[in-house]
Amino acid sequence: MTDTLWLILGAGLLLWVLYDIIRGQTWLHRRIARTKEPMFFWALMLAWTGLAFWTLGFGYSG
Q1: N or C: which end of the chain has fewer CB within 10 A?
Q2: Per residue in 5-46, pLDDT tens?
Q3: What is the SS3 assignment for 29?
Q4: Measured between alpha carbons, how far is 5 from 17 in angstroms, rounded to an integer?
Q5: How many domains does one find in the chain?
Q6: How far apart are CA 61 and CA 48, in angstroms?
């Protein structure tokens, strides 16, 4: 059960990253637009993607 939860969470985070990339904006404590702050935007996308794969790893470790 716990492994499945990690897989669902990781997949959800990956979908969230894809959605934000398509929209060109994300939220942290404020809106970050790719057009206005590209370095910060892509750094956040990299961080969220890393977290997503990390959680997927927990799902496959069991």
Answers
A1: N
A2: 889 999 999 999 999 999 999 999 999 999 999 999 999 999
A3: coil
A4: 18
A5: 1
A6: 20
